Predict the structure.
Amino acid sequence: MEYSAGFTSEGWFQQEIESILDQINKGFSREEIRSKVIEDNVFLLRSESAISKRFQMVYRRAKTLYPKLSEYYFNGTNSDRKVLVLYSFLKSYRYAHENFYELIVYRYQHKNGTLQVSDMSFYMEEKEQQSEKIAYWRITTKKKINSTLLLFYRESGMIELLEDEYKVSPLHVSQPLKQFAEEKDDLLKAIITLKAGS
């Protein structure tokens, strides 16, 4: 997976993911779902190009949950759904995936579970040293990336702002989803426990 700044236009999109996932579960093809989304303006956007762009993002993320995780999405708790929306995002974008493991999990395990906005910027600077592509992202793009990541971590409940820093906390999910994660999905397990590896 290549680095991409494309997720700067991403949003939480839980309702959209749910809608697409429902259509996938019903056996509709990608093109059938896309046509229905555009025709019915399911996303409530003004132009067909905006709908198509949103569909690309949402469909990609919904596919990370199909087939097995979609069962947990529809049959689980609200917390399960939030964890799975975050999972779909981290699974879709390399930078987000690495940021989660290398910054969030690390801060939880080694830095008293605290995170400051400046930590996001320092992490970005480290990644610039490792990747020429990241080094050439514009300053506004880098700020938007950090803002998007913080949005996802906040919406999932993984971070909570306490005065001038964020408190990083593991996520609570249903026992069936937790068991599935422990047995079959390292990323999902890490999202739930904030622990990397076995």
Notes: Residues 21 and 66 are 7 Å apart (CA to CA). The mean pLDDT is 95. The beta strands are 114-115, 159-162, 165-168.
